[in-house]
TrEMBL record, chains A, B:
Pfam families, per the entry: MarR_2, ROK
Full protein name: Sugar kinase
GO MF, one annotated term: DNA-binding transcription factor activity
SUPFAM superfamilies (alphabetical): Actin-like ATPase domain, Winged helix' DNA-binding domain
Family to which this protein belongs: Belongs to the ROK (NagC/XylR) family.
Superkingdom of source: Bacteria
Domain HTH marR-type: 25-67
Keywords, ordered alphabetically: Kinase, Transferase
Length: 393, 393
């Protein structure tokens, strides 16, 4: 196609780009501050009140913000009508494939979790196409229910337990699922765009947006595998290829037991769910917790060993990335009472002399829901960063 | 003091803020693209030609840019005069305290290295005040020489081999210097502001700005200590407290030999300069290289051991931060021929199955000068990011 290129067309392109930038600016401020009057928005953004009113009208029409009631700002002046993010029109889907469950979450633009569906499965015995088909059914059911409550799904993000090629969504190797080179997006084919990302990264974002996460922390996701997500000033650190945070394969002992990843002595071999269950002959995590509560020596010794290994790997992580806080999530949240002292002691022993403060260790508030919530939250961030895509042109 | 607060004063504040932003915008584009006409700057920034001309005039007057010759842009139109960053007025000082040398570098705003002074010392046997006084003398001599060639020093950054509190410049603990809680800035007192930062971080930035560094890499600084600087999309990753990149204390073997940092089995104990010299009975690095060139079995075995340990620690680093490339600098640059195969082999063995690509290992082009150049480069970046501080008001 030939594009018009004269001065008028150029001016129109500039005007559209400016409008998109200003819409994002206004929506971003409303999202960050909860609710604001048009006058306050004009003050903050430096845009004129007329421009702000026009932009707010467009955002209201698109269902992205709503009027929220009047406030009187300061002593003088007319009371203003505040606007806030609307939870009534636009929604996002967070999806997760893990080793032993599938889950989907519907979250509205105001970050309320509206619908939850989880399905227990054993994805190690199923083929990738079967797993993805089951997830597709779960998600389509959720979308139908979303429509019933007046919500329109604008996008989704899928969490998988392994490194993902962010450009293509291909899962190169998820050893705990037994997946290699699985082209997830083309198999999933949902009626909205879906990006694929690593589970631990998304769980970290879940903790940031839906939990009690401070703006700088290393989130540790204990599952059958162990991953980590580093959040820096409220943003996820992904690394050059999106493969950062593979804490489970950090070296605890270079000549230790062989790992599914091909290396030896990785953290996962000492502190992953399978290592813990095998060492204690427990059927599942609930049984392990019961044993620990009963003071079973073998269970306590396995947690001690896992805690020491976690402390070693985390001391390497602190030396490399210097997080403000360490948040233990996934199975480590349930095992926190039996891990915390060992991990904290190891961190103090290895880091205490070099640093004025060793990062505190805290427990995640979200448990296994963190990744799916972080996934939905990413879609919401995207809408807020670029609302033009959700507006009628 | 009482600030005027009426609408006129508010407008003046807004105008000043806008001018500062626009000056930074114009100077940043010139710095990023080498040289540009005023017309091209107007096109890129969206500012009017009149505004651009006024901003460029201010930058020329401040000595930050100069006119560089005429070009004819495209087929039609008048030829335009290009402007580029000026190397004739403003300069920065990069300083370094290392275990066995002091160095200062004078770099102009166009990033040419104008003066170099290095002094061999043994800072382990001297008190911090003596070391800092010697550095002060070296720097003051350099500033005098800068004045003689018409350059005005606007600031400096000092590299030290250990973690630094970025807010105060206090070196909490630099075990290889034997320093604890040294308030460097108040001891140094130079006639321009000086920030203090970790040596490896600054060496990474030196590699980025003055070497052949790609925009995403992990720079490994081998000295008596071992540090690393992670550069992500052209920016240094510092961590929550500025202590990221302590690769020397990443765990190679959790029950290995005790390290000066208080932990055991840290990388530094296997691959630091002292470990290498002790294992080979070499006096210094030059002697070690001579032994390696002669095929001395003990020297070769020590490099093999260091390379394996470096491979283990770097595989943990790649798992955690996923750098695009690994750059070996400092003593590892000189030892590269005897380390590279072992390190590469270890990375492939530990990472190859999980990742479609293992980060390539390359050698630094700058050697021991990297940190001081990165330090000066930081001052230059600061001037370009906020030129208003260098302008007459």
């Amino acid at each position: 196609m030939t594009q018009p290129t004269g001065p008028a067309a150029k001016q129109a392109v500039r005007h559209d780009a400016m409008r998109a930038r200003n819409l994002a600016l206004v929506l971003g401020e409303v999202a960050a501050r909860g609710s604001l009057t048009r006058a306050a928005l004009s003050e903050i953004t430096g845009l004129t009140k007329t421009t702000v009113s026009k932009l707010v009208a467009d955002l209201i029409e698109a269902g992205l913000v709503v009027e929220a009631g009047t406030v009187r700002a300061g002593e003088r002046g007319r009371p203003g009508m505040e606007v806030r993010i609307s939870g009534e029109r636009v929604a996002a889907v967070g999806l997760e494939i893990n080793v032993d469950y599938l889950s989907v979450r519907l979250v509205d633009l105001a970050r309320s979790v509206r619908l939850r569906r989880t399905q227990a499965v054993d994805n190690r015995t199923a083929r990738p196409v079967e797993v993805i088909a089951a997830l597709r059914d779960l998600a389509l059911g959720l979308v139908d229910e979303a429509v019933d409550i007046g919500l329109q799904v604008v996008g989704g993000v899928l969490a998988v337990p392994g490194p993902v090629d962010l450009a293509t969504g291909v899962v190169h190797n998820a050893p705990n699922l037994g997946w290699r080179e699985v082209p997830v997006p083309e198999l999933l084919r949902l009626p909205f765009p879906v990006r694929v990302e690593n589970e631990a990264n998304l769980a970290a974002l879940g903790e940031l947006w839906f939990g009690s996460g401070p703006p700088d922390f290393l989130y540790v996701s204990g599952e059958i595998g162990i991953g980590a997500g580093l959040v820096v000033r409220g943003r996820l650190f992904r690394g050059a290829r999106g493969f950062a945070g593979e804490l489970g394969h950090v070296v605890v002992s270079p000549d230790g037991p062989p790992c599914r990843c091909g290396a030896r002595g990785c953290l996962e071999r000492y502190a992953g769910q399978d290592a813990l269950l095998t060492a204690t002959a427990a059927e599942d995590l609930t049984e392990l917790v019961t044993l620990l509560e009963a003071g079973d020596p073998r269970a306590l010794a396995a947690c001690e060993r896992a805690g020491r290994a976690l402390g070693v790997a985390l001391s390497s992580a602190v030396n490399l990335v210097d997080p403000d806080t360490i948040v233990l999530g996934g199975i480590f949240a349930r095992l926190f009472p039996w891990l915390a002292d060992t991990v904290t002691g190891m961190l103090a022993a290895r880091l205490g002399q070099m640093r004025s403060a060793v990062p505190p260790l805290v427990v995640s508030q979200l448990g296994t829901e963190a990744a799916a919530l972080g996934a939905a939250g990413q879609v919401i961030q995207q809408v807020i960063a670029d609302p033009t895509a959700s507006l009628p042109t």
